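User: Sorry, what's this?
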Amino acid sequence: MTTTLLSTAGELHARVRAGRRAVVMTMGALHEGHATLIRTARGIAGRDGEVVVTVFVNPLQFGQGEDLDRYPRTLDADLKLAGESGADVVFAPAVDEVYPGGEPQVRITAGPMGERLEGSARPGHFDGMLTVVAKLLHLTRPDVALYGQKDAQQLALIRRMVRDLNFGVEIVGVPTVREDDGLALSSRNRYLSPVERRTALALSSALFAGQDRHAAQEALRARAREVPATRARAEALSAIGESRAAADAHAVATAVPGGPAAVRAAARQVLDEAARLDPPLSLDYLALVDPSDFTEIGHDFTGEAVLAVAARVGATRLIDNLPLTFGAAS
């Protein structure tokens, strides 16, 4: 399909709209993760709707010493991928279009959630992110906006901003896209040398280890709920060769709930091993949090959670996460 490149909000507002407008916000350097977002947006907008992809490297999101200057700018390739994925428009404004008169004096503040995890590691990052998202929502005027779940804290903050400030837009989260080896797709992956990439795989490996531990615990808890852990039942199971199952069910049924701690420990073991590699992985944080406010969950937590990790390999900082559900069955 033919994709139109626009650089001003006036040009975008002048377009005739028949159906829903779906917006995918990016900083360029598009990859398959972005393509998945665009294809999902195409499905939501439908044949009569419109998909707009924004390409804007937001200076407010980069702190001192971060990679604003070396962040890849690949607009021609971005336009091609966006078109192949189903975008009608690529909106690539200049800094003056987004911030007329220079840096804005009035900004969105992310609040307490924006000071945790990524916010602690990158002070001011989420204030800058929310400010540009708010501006781009105004400039593009979408019915729905899509964001990747890889940036879980960012997605949670955007949802909170839209709710707290009464933005008339639907926010859709799209699952993380991974490469064949499990590494979450990111524009920063291209900075990794082959040996650094091998170390970086510890991020996803740690999450999968935590996920596996969580799945095993939930399965045992489900068995314990279904099979009362009585001595008579254990003896009956043992008689038919299921002594291990009986012991596991009894242990889970009588133990103090400690699922989150075991999940953290399983993930941490992988990261600790990666810290001894050459080159080593330098951990920023490993957290198991409530996605409503990104505070650490307790041992008796039930509901949706996010297992999140951030680390550096060489000069490259990477993040990743997986959603988990505790106490899914009652």
